[in-house]
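Step 1: inspect the first sequence and its tokens.
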Amino acid sequence: MCPILFHIGPIPIYGYGLMLATEFLLAMFLAQKDAKRFNIPEDKLSSLFPWIILAGAFGARLFHAIVERPSYFWEHPLEVFYFWDGGVTFYGGLIGGVLTVWIFARKNKIPFIHVADFLIVYTALGQVFGRLGCFLAGCCHGVPTDVPWGISVNNPESITRPLGIPLHPTQLYQALVNLITFLILYKVSRHKKFNGQLLLIYGLTYPLGRSIVEIFRGDSIRGFVID
């Protein structure tokens, strides 16, 4: 794992942050190109994405602070805004994103379920890059293993513990689950039969894959909510 990929002058470029940026930009680009197929006005959609990014990022960080490390952030409240340090939770980002989409759909008089169906396809794709970011940062790692594809981490800057011991690369397992979920959603979206169909499929496939990956998770600093 490589938490810091390189420096631009004195500024470190974090792998996790770069993957998150890639996640958002790619999802935005592809969703914008696909908006017409879902009969969603492209101009209105372009105004939605910045708000999703802000609400999703803040929700993910705030959820992590309140649920997983409340005592630490109570003593260091300003560090809630240190997004570059890592420490975000998907469910917090999802809550922030859902609220933003609900407001958007209500304001533009578009059925919320229809917009959510459209966006969940690219949410699944974005999660692939999010998990690659976890892999670079060293978080969300697996338990020790002797399988041939086990990965040892020796970089002390990595969040992974213990160092120097082969671990299941659960971040890559989850990235694969998310990629499969995206491919299923995208294929079904070409012949969607009812509003909510894609949300339903995501709600079935993602938890199933996630529950399997959780068997191999070995990170302990996650609080009481699965990250």
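Step 2: inspect the second sequence and its tokens, then contrast the two.
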Amino acid sequence: MGVALPERLKETLDAKSFAHVATVGADGHPHNSVMWITRDGDHLIVNTAAGRVKWHNMRRDPRVSVSISPPDANDLNYSVKGRVVEMRTEDGVAVIDALSQKYLGVEEFPWRGEGDVRVTIVIEALAVAANQ
């Protein structure tokens, strides 16, 4: 069962904050990626291209850890233990374009590769800790 996100964390997710998303590799070791992030209510939303290491890892093992700090308070860090509850492609392009607008101020994601399939990843928070 998921947990509600604290308001300050929601503000951080709504801001131009970079998240570090850790997945579990096939060999059991963590794989960490810096990612753009947003939210839908209490769910964290990230986006990647199908075929990437993190995509493979999340398909095989839904456990993730997300670390994020507010852009105006780098002494505050949120750690979210979560699990991937959905991976979908139907809105993948729209989500990466919205993230591109948020982070770059441009309407379309400028590094779209030919043949890329964009995947929206929905993460349910299972535990949230704030460290200051």
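Step 3: confirm your contrast with the notes below.
Helices lie at 7-14, 53-60, 92-104. DSSP finds three helices and seven strands in the chain.
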